[in-house]
Write a structure and sequence with these properties.
By secondary structure, the chain is α+β, with helices and mostly antiparallel strands. It has one domain. It has one helix and two strands. The longest helix has 11 residues.
Length: 47
């Protein structure tokens, strides 16, 4: 079990994600967890 400490995404990164996704829906294709680097990678494409 890996516990991610907040913030996982910085405020600036979150605002960037929100600005891209504001008027679009996305489908998540893949979610990868890297326990050594304590990262989460999400691959998504516009719906």
């Amino acid at each position: 079990m890996v516990k991610l400490k907040p913030p996982v995404v910085s405020t600036a990164q979150l605002q960037g994600i929100q600005s891209v996704a504001r008027n679009r829906q996305y489908v998540v294709d893949e979610i990868q967890f890297n326990s050594q680097q304590r990262t989460v990678t999400i691959l998504a494409k516009p719906y």
